[in-house]
Amino acid sequence: MNADARTRPLSAEVWQRPFVRAHHAWCEDFVLELRLRDVPGPVIGDRLGEVESHCTAAGETPEEAFGDPAAYAAGIAEESPTRPASGFRRITALSAAQVAALLVGTAAARPWARGEDLAYNAVQAGLLGVFVLLLLALPRVLGPLVRRPWTVGLPFVVVVQLTGLGAALAGRLDLPAAVSLPAAPVAVGLFPVVLVLAWAVHRELVHGPGDDAVLSPLPPQPGTAPRGAGGRRGIAALTAAMLPVAYLVLAAFGRLTA
């Protein structure tokens, strides 16, 4: 085995391998299922290499040799070590916390401009609390959402959207304030929180995988050059910057329309 091949991340080599490109859907579902089950990246790389070696030698497709990728991955996961949390679960948790901070912080911009407190009635506070809890629960329910997008994912998204809409509309009810907060400290104070979380997301996207990267045990294919890190860093920076920019835009809009 070429030792240098063991140091190449999946994005630099494996997805460019002719076998993986020819059976991209099967390999993608296989890797995704193992990731959802928190199987370490090197183990995934070894298993993917075994699939390629077997199919190449036997002249079979992955479907013919191993059947359904999710079912095969489930069997592998039962006998493989796991890690406490995978990178995209951490990114999901960080992003959910960002959205929660953004919603509360930007909602405070309009009452701040009016010299009022940020106030929530009981119904609004309850729905907002449920909405935030649903967002923070995303890492826990990520597996079912991805595996069953129509029966679990779509209903979950609808419930989240209806809860958020209900929280917004409940503010129009003629009810006394149950929670009252000074608007300026909330609007200003939550923006650094969003920035810190954005930095954590960026760091996770760029450096998070570390030794958990999916590595190929097979020699590199001729003509498959490693993908540069510059594009990855650019995408990570753009992704991380989206919510802080949205925070500023929404807060400015709230103050201008107060």
From TrEMBL:
The transmembrane residues are 118-138, 150-171, 183-201, 235-254
Q: Give the UniProt keywords, A-Z.
A: Membrane, Transmembrane, Transmembrane helix
Could you tell me what this protein is called? Uncharacterized protein
Q: Which organism is it from?
A: Kocuria flava
